[in-house]
Design goal:
Layout (H helix, E strand, L loop, with lengths): L15 H4 L1 H13 L20 H25 L6 H45 L9 H7 L4 H14 L3 H7 L11
Helix pairs in contact: 3-4, 4-5, 5-7
Length: 184
């Protein structure tokens, strides 16, 4: 361990936020998750219904990318030291594992939301018509139908099945948009 490169012998100066990780988390949560206080949030419609979560879409993936790049650089610096290259390689592997973990955690949550939306819209269709929702509707169509108000819902569901509309066409066919502020 005494033949370490000079990079590992000098003291590391860390920014203040890294000494207190809780302050960093509170700061980023407050900064990235609150809507602006002075602006009114516009009514949801086809053009603005998509939602981004800055802490997930920007911060998390930037940090994972930084960890991957940093671990690769670290592996390059320690590759010729037999006692250190295993740790460097493990950091690269862990950084690579973080990418599918982040992607799968998002997709699993969306699948759970999709199942809940299917159940809600099936119940809504049953309450409005006394019949079950047509089994030929795909999950993407059902998710798009959640934006339709009760007056348009039944007719649009039938039209979606008869004309095999995709989710974008269903959303564009909605006249009076019903907001869904809970889906992320």
């Amino acid at each position: 361990m005494q033949n370490l490169p000079a990079v590992y012998k000098r003291p590391i100066k860390k920014p203040l936020l890294f000494y207190r990780p809780i302050y960093f988390l509170i700061f980023t949560h407050y900064f990235f998750s609150k809507p602006p206080q002075n602006k009114t949030i516009p009514m949801q419609n086809f053009k603005n219904h998509g939602r981004m979560v800055p802490m997930y879409h920007y911060v998390l993936f930037s940090l994972i990318l930084a960890a991957l790049i940093g671990s690769i650089i670290n592996l390059y610096h320690v590759w010729h030291h037999a006692d250190l290259h295993l740790g460097g390689a493990l950091l690269v592997v862990i950084s690579i594992i973080l990418i599918p973990m982040a992607l799968f955690s998002r997709s699993f949550a969306l699948k759970a939301q999709d199942r809940a939306i299917r159940a809600e819209e099936s119940l809504r269709h049953f309450a409005l018509t006394g019949k079950l929702l047509d089994s030929r509707l795909r999950i993407g169509q059902i998710i798009a139908l959640r934006f339709a108000p009760d007056e348009e819902f039944v007719g649009l569901a039938k039209k979606a099945v008869d004309e095999n509309l995709d989710s974008k066409a269903i959303k564009q066919a909605i006249v009076n948009w019903k907001e869904d502020n809970y889906r992320v």
